Amino acid sequence: MPLDALAFALGAAALHAFWNVVLARERDVEAATALAVVSVLVVLVLPAALTWRVEAAAIPFIVASGVLELVYFAMLAAAYRRYELSLVYPVARGLAPVLALVIVVAAGGALPAALGVVGVLAVSAGVLLVRGPRGNLHGLAVGAAIAAIIGGYTVVDRYGIQHAAAGPYLLLIMIGPAIVYPLAIGKRRLRAAAGWQPLGVDYRAGSQVRPDARPPHPA
Q: Where are the domains of the chain?
C-alpha cells in the first residue's frame, strides 16, 4: 500500500474516532456535525494544495465517496441524537470492515487472503465485544446501516486513492458534504452551535429571553 494511502486510512480512522466522541456530547448534534465538516474542509486546503495530484480517473470515485460521506454524516448525527455513543459507534465501526470485505468480494474484486479475512473478523469481533449484545434493537439496526455506509466509502476510496494524492482526494470528497449538509441544517442552528447568538435569544430553548429578565423569587 502506498504511504500516502496508509496515512489517509490511519488519519481517517483517528479523525472519525475523535469526531464521534466530541459530536455525541453536543446539544445540537446535527449543527455541530455541519460545523465540523466545514472545519475539516478548511484544514485540508493547505495540505491538499501542497500535494496536489488528481487524475481524471479519480473523479467518479470522489463523487461516489462524497455522496456516501454526506449520507454518513447525516445518519450519524441523527443516530447520536437518539441513541448513545456506546451503542452506535461500536456497532458501526465493528461491522464496517466486515461489510467492506463483503462489498469488495460481491463487486468482483480480488479475493482476500485467508489471513486477511481472519484479521478483519478478529478486529470486528473485538470492537463489538466492547459493546456486548445489549442495547436497543432499533439503535443496533441504525448502527449496522451506518456500518454499511462506512464499508461503502471505504471500498470506493480503496480504488479512488490510487488515482490521487491523499490530501486533495479527501478535500474534494469533503466539498459536497461541506456545502450541502450545512445548508440543510440552516443558518440559525449553525449560529447557535457556533455560539453566535444575538443577545437575549436562546435558540436551544427556541424561545425569546429578555436581557433584563430575573428569576422568580423563591416562595
A: 3-185
